[in-house]
Design brief:
Number of helices: 8
InterPro entries: M28_QC, Peptidase_M28, QC/QCL
Shape: globular
CATH superfamily: Zn peptidases
EC number: 3.4.-.-
Order of helices and strands: EHHHEEEHEHEHEHEH
Family: Belongs to the peptidase M28 family.
Largest sheet: 6 strands, mixed
GO biological process, one term: proteolysis
Structural class: alpha/beta
CATH topology: Aminopeptidase
Bound molecules: 2-acetamido-2-deoxy-beta-D-glucopyranose
Organism: Nadsonia fulvescens var. elongata DSM 6958
Length: about 375
């Protein structure tokens, strides 16, 4: 990603009326995330059966290593995550994985293959006769899985192996809760619209420039996918229409997470409330025994909740995978430290420079945020 100085300053203070679902978890539910799914057991960088370690290789788009990483993601969502649950034999929709593969010209070759991995899990929707066609809505979580060509041997542990592995961890944490909620809705009726919110997880390819960051040498995957989603109707399931792009309720982008002392400002006024919701998870969670590894207020990952302290809303000035989505009107919550960690684009962005306590706390925060957004309160605990 890259700081871009915009020649024409965009006015970002327009307040867009969009209604997010959101329901805070109870303290016991927050606590249970850490105890049932200890983040560092899932995200141990040295465990080759874990979620993180398979990302920690050089993974240039179109190479065999990139395919290995894709297989890791596929296997997790198709074979492992819902073990014991079988989508074709149950009433509960499971995870769907599709690949968005395409070729593009790059400074190192004209036909480089890129592959975005798009994972989704949508609730089964009840459409009553006479209902107007509705657009499916999803919370979208994204990170890029490619690594940078230079310096040679660069594996991008924070950029963005850890963010990708955290997204898999989130899916693991909420998988059974989604199943329980769907079973409940199947029995009791759909209720409100928030129960129709799905989840999409995007593992984007080709974020990094091959040579130097320009509008054509960067974010290959995100540019392709945003354009594609704009032009396609989401599969016309259950009478739902609308472009794939309009199905995105909020686009949450994780980038450069896993180094010590992150500080994330609120980049977009449109998602400032969600930013504060995420911030409050960390604040509340400090009082819950055993939830976080960082317990002191000074280690807050987020800035003050007041709008005045985030007044600059720097979102439009930072080029990253969200850009082609944001330019098409999608609300974005960008989770990237300002400033970037010192390891950024150096060979030191490796396992030795991960701060595992920070990785731990990010995993809990993102998982809890996702569960709150999808209103999984009352479904998180295994009871
Ligand atoms: C594949 O990953 C390994 C481990 O990071 C690395 O040594 C090797 O050079 C990579 N291969 C390619 C073609 O990038
Ligand atoms: C899932 O269930 C279907 C039908 O009961 C069966 O044919 C299929 O082999 C099962 N798949 C797995 C992975 O267990
Ligand atoms: C790249 O692929 C396209 C379509 O597959 C083909 O028409 C073109 O000749 C290829 N270019 C090169 C340089 O291989």
């Amino acid at each position: 990603m890259k700081i871009i100085v915009l020649t024409s300053w965009l006015i970002l203070s327009v307040s867009i009326a969009f209604s997010n679902a959101y329901m805070p978890l109870k303290d016991t539910e927050l606590e249970s995330i850490a105890s049932q799914f200890p983040p560092l057991e899932y995200l141990n960088p040295l465990d080759d059966g874990g979620l993180l370690q398979p990302f920690l290789i050089v993974r240039i788009p179109g190479t065999e290593n990139s395919t290995k990483v894709q297989n890791h993601v596929n296997d997790f969502f198709i074979k492992q995550i819902s073990q014991g649950q079988n989508s074709s034999s149950s009433e509960i929709p499971m995870w769907k994985v599709t690949h968005d593969s395409f070729q593009d010209s790059t400074p190192i070759g004209d036909n480089i293959t890129f592959t975005n991995i798009c994972v989704s899990r949508d609730p089964e929707l009840a459409i009553n006769e006479g209902d107007k066609a509705r657009t499916r809505k999803r919370l979208t979580l994204a990170a890029h899985y490619d690594s940078k060509l230079y310096p040679e041997g660069f594996i991008g542990a924070i950029d963005s192996a850890v963010p990708c592995a955290i997204l898999m961890y989130v899916a693991k944490v909420i998988d059974k809760a989604l199943t329980r909620k769907q079973a409940f809705l199947n029995e009791n009726g759909v209720g409100n619209e928030n129960n129709q919110l799905g989840l999409q997880i995007l593992f984007l390819d080709g974020e990094e420039a091959f040579h130097e960051w320009t509008s054509t040498d960067s974010i290959y995957g995100a540019r392709h996918l945003a354009a594609r989603m704009e032009n396609e109707d989401i599969e016309n399931v259950d009478g739902l229409i609308g472009s794939g792009l309009s199905s995105i309720d909020t686009f949450v982008l994780l980038d450069l997470l896993g180094a010590a002392n992150p500080r994330i400002p609120s980049y977009f006024s449109e998602t400032h409330d969600l930013y504060n919701s995420m911030r409050s998870i960390q604040k509340r969670g400090r009082n819950i025994k055993g939830l976080f590894q960082h317990k002191r207020r000074e280690s807050n990952f987020f800035s003050s909740p007041s709008v005045s302290e985030n007044v600059h809303f720097l979102g439009g000035t930072l080029g990253d995978d969200h850009t082609p989505f944001w330019q098409r009107g999608v609300p974005v919550l960008h989770l990237i430290p300002n400033k970037f960690p010192p390891q950024w684009h150096h060979l030191t962005d490796d396992v030795d420079h991960l701060d595992l306590r920070t990785v731990h706390d990010w995993a809990i925060i993102i998982a809890a945020f996702t569960a709150e957004y999808l209103e999984l309160t009352n479904f998180i605990l295994d009871q």
